[in-house]
Amino acid sequence: MRTQITSSATVMSSDAVKKRKPKVIRSEAGAPETKRGRAEGDQDVRVYNEEVELEVRDPQQDYMLYKDTCAALAKLMEEIQELKAGGAKVQSVEIEERRTQCSVHFITLKKLNRLAHMRLKKGRDQTHEAKQRVDVLHLQLQNLLYEVMHLQKEIGKCLEFRSQHEEIELVSEEEFFQEAPAEISRPHVTRDDQHQLTLARLDWELEQRKRLAEQYKMSLARKEKIQKAIEQKREYLSSLQPGLQNIMQASLPVQEYLAIPFEHMQKQAEVARHLPPPLYVLLVQAGAYGQACDKNLSVSISGDVDEAKALSRPPEDSQDDESDSDAEEEQQNTKRRRATLGVQLDDKRKEMLRRHPLSLCVDLKCKDGSVLHLFFYYLMNLNILTVKTKVSTTTDLSGAVSAGELLNSESLLNCLYASDHGKETPNPANRYQFDKVGITTFGDYVSDLGHPFVWVQKLGGLQFSSGGAQSGLTGSALSASHMERTMKLLRGRLQARLALHKQFSSLEHSIIPVSSECQHLFPAKVVSGLVRWTTMSCQEFTELGFVQHVLKAGLVHETDLFFMATVERGTARLRAAVVMNPRYPEVAPLFSLSLHWKGERSGRTDDNLQAMESEVNVFRSELQGPRPGLQLLTNQIQRLCVCLDVYLETESQVCDGSEGPKEFPREKMCLRTARGPSRLKPFKYNHPQGFFSHR
Amino acid sequence: MSVFSQSFSPCGRFLAAGNNYGEIALFSLSAALSPDASEGSQKPILNFTAHDGPVFSLLSTDTHLLSAGNGEISAWSWAELIKKVSQLFSKCMCIFLGLGKMYISFHCCDNSLIVGGGDNNIHIMDMETGIFKSVLKGHTDYIHCLCFKEREEEILSGGEDGAVRIWDSRTNRPVHCIEVFKYEECARPQFGKWISCLATDSDWMLCGGGPSLSLWHLRSMSPTSVFPLPGCQREAVFHQDLIMSVGEGPYVSHCLHGGTVKAQIPCTPSSLNTLALNLKNTEHRVMTVGGSSHQIDVFTNFSYRAFSLSF
């Protein structure tokens, strides 16, 4: 562009020159412009080209000429001045001459000016051109440099280029050469040329992959087919299920008829899977014991299976539910008043004492048809088992007022093993849990939740460290080792209580039931008779005066049962306070006597009454009766009556000096009526002979 | 439980007591009387069943402990007993001494054992050979207590029939017979006529039981003083110038020869059967009483009860 501009400039300048030219030329010749434009060749002849002149003339000379001209002009001016001053007329010849010379000088000056300008312009133009050329070259240089850089970058990029083909795992070269067919591997070419080798390998890879893709598609298709086949078979099977169910249902009556409770056992096994571990151990062991040793023991599961299943569901669901419900609760709480601290604590307590929804029911049947039902529960957070009892009998047990406590489910299983009260939880960890929710004793909840006896824990395989000796067994082994003994004790307990119940009802009617096997212990005729048999509370017992020695010896516990028997003959009245341990008849009842006859005497003050007490308390093994020893109590009472007879009849008459017939004539046969320094009476009855002697 | 008899060991450091269940318990007096005695030292160091009837009498010779049960007399070696071995040394079945379960009391002097039993007779047995040498007949009911006067070598016996008979041990013949219940000062018909305790001190004799406890002068055969003790006395001893007796009532009575009751020391059992004084050992000079309780009271100072041994 610059060249264009300069060329237009030169054209313009030449035009300008040519425009001025006409002035000069007009003054000389006056050729029109158009003519000039047309006839370039002519112009060379006609046109006055100053530019050519410019090259010829020397600038220095021009400069000198300028100076001279200026000086001449100045001189002329001066001359004119002088002339004018001299009073010459403006139109004088000298002035006119000089004016023309001045004009010529002016024209020279103008020319010089023009030449100077033209030189300047030329110089400028030249510089401009040179600059332009330099610029062009510079630009080229820049372009080239730019391109060099670009190329360098490209080279760099090319060098760094990681072609995708490098990521493809190719088989090794040896394998490739071995496996690939010749047209692909072209060893003659590829062995030398790395590039070709790589290409060949890629080709091979591609071909292999295509082949494998084909295989894959085929396998997929096959799989689909097989899947369909499986689906069909599954449908078929599931259609069978209802049919089988029907068959099972139909077979139930057959099972019952044949007495093979197959389905029942299956159902039980199914439910048993949801039992917590201790109950499961108990179920298995009790079932095993029942099958093997004791046909009269049966176990069943009761309770809500769905709830149990809900408990064993994974906790994520419940956590989500909890968080949702928490959010809801909080919203509700902000609307209502917040629940009081007590209610929150109550809820926490309820949560801690929660029972597992499933429970076991163990039934022990006795020969006479009465059944002891034991319901076992598992408290989940406390990890203990509890038991509740129920007794069902074939006959109606009523009429014995004093027997009210005997079959009371609260106290029926008290002290099955010595000192196993079942009022406190045997798990020591529960203490800390209770502290958190403010439960002081577990005893408050026992009537609701059942008794946590230690033997119950052992049957469930739970072993808690207590003060006593450890047995090193756990789980099923522990349960099995205790099962037989516990079941025997339970049955014995039930039978003892039922026997006592019967005995009490006849004792209350003042009849002492002595069975035929025990008749030999007593003489045929017993005059003293039982008049009253009542039950007492622990409080009433401790208030009696003649039992203090028993209390002091520590033989009375809160779990014991207390009774009062009154035996009378004539004016004599014998009161016997009986302490019965719940483990009757293993632990014999303890009698304390007080006689009211001509004054009050007790075992502490009267040696003979003490001897009577020892007859029933110490020599009780004679009174046990046939094997389970359930007649102990009644035999003891009968013996008391016999001893009272002996006591009264052998009492020497002359205590207060009164004369007259004895109140109690001697009917018993005694060898000696008083022996030894303490004048003891003969209380021992010898059987076939029928006389009384001392021990 | 009633404790019927007591006896101290020859060395005086041990006490043997017999109860109505036929058990004999051995207590260590040195342990119980030592300054650092605890509750455990008041329990027997050895307890074994000697007979199947009550042990009414215990007697210590120099080497052996003799115990009387139902128709049998057993001898135990003290040396073995102290080592806590209750091995029977020898047993003598006195079957003829009554129909099985009778009351036996004995006394021993110069190697012969005087046994009074339920067959109303007194038998004298040679301890070395075990043969019964002689029989003294005279009582009409079983014999409660026996006593021996060393100086005159006379045997005194008291029985259920209310008579105190005096026999000459050399000739084995009866010398005197006192029927205490016939004397009005002593007789207490409301209790009976049986004599259950006898004690002699040279010329004096104590007897009591059904009749009141009375002090007799043997030369004149008459009661000099009668002690106004309410119950029947079961054992009485002379000690220095006091008479100590136990019986019905929970106390030990200290009486003077004149007939006054000086003191009645209370005890734990409600009535007492036996009283024993340990005079052989000066260190453990105690009096022990036992009765119708399992506790045997020990008196270090005879005026008050110190502690009780527990049978």
TrEMBL record, chain A:
Residues 317-331 have a biased composition (Acidic residues). Keywords: Nucleus. GO terms for biological process: mRNA export from nucleus. It comes from the Eukaryota. Residues 1-41, 306-343 are annotated as: Disordered. The keyword Nucleus applies. GO terms for cellular component: THO complex part of transcription export complex. InterPro entries: THO_Thoc5. It is found in: Nucleus. One of its GO terms (molecular function) is mRNA binding. Its main location: nucleus. Residues 1-13 have a biased composition (Polar residues). Pfam families: FmiP_Thoc5 (PF09766). Residues 306-316 have a biased composition (Basic and acidic residues). Belongs to the THOC5 family. This is THO complex 5. It comes from Cyprinus carpio carpio.
UniProtKB/TrEMBL annotation, chain B:
It holds the Pfam family WD40. Transmembrane segments: none annotated. PROSITE patterns: WD_REPEATS_1, WD_REPEATS_2, WD_REPEATS_REGION. SUPFAM superfamilies: WD40 repeat-like (SSF50978). It comes from Cyprinus carpio carpio. Keywords: Repeat, WD repeat. GO terms for biological process: mRNA export from nucleus. Belongs to the WD repeat THOC6 family. WD repeats lie at residues 136-177. SMART domains: WD40. This is THO complex 6. One of its GO terms (cellular component) is transcription export complex.
